[in-house]
Write the structure tokens for this entry.
Amino acid sequence: MTKLTEKEEEVMALIWKIGPCAPKDVLALYDEPRPNINTVAMSFQALEKKGYLTHRPHGRGFIYEPTVARDDYGSHRISHFVDKLFGQSYMSVVSALVRDKKVDEADLLQFLAELHKNNK
């Protein structure tokens, strides 16, 4: 999976939120001051070139659809993050989350229950 820029991730998040759409549909979701429609359209083109979108004709324009699911992209980014910053150790990530009080005992027990259920 090709890495996306911050702006491309922002546009993809909006596309994943609304589903098949045109650049003008994404533009409408931005708060003021909105980017220029050409900027958004260029992001769509870059995302299609990177394999994240496909398009089909619709009226005088195109409708774009994601070719990569949000969860798949998220899993890829998490793996890259863990590999790069935590030496491929997911336990180091969990330890950091516990240490920073982002995860508590109840969260860990729920995780263990889900892990146990999935391993059966």
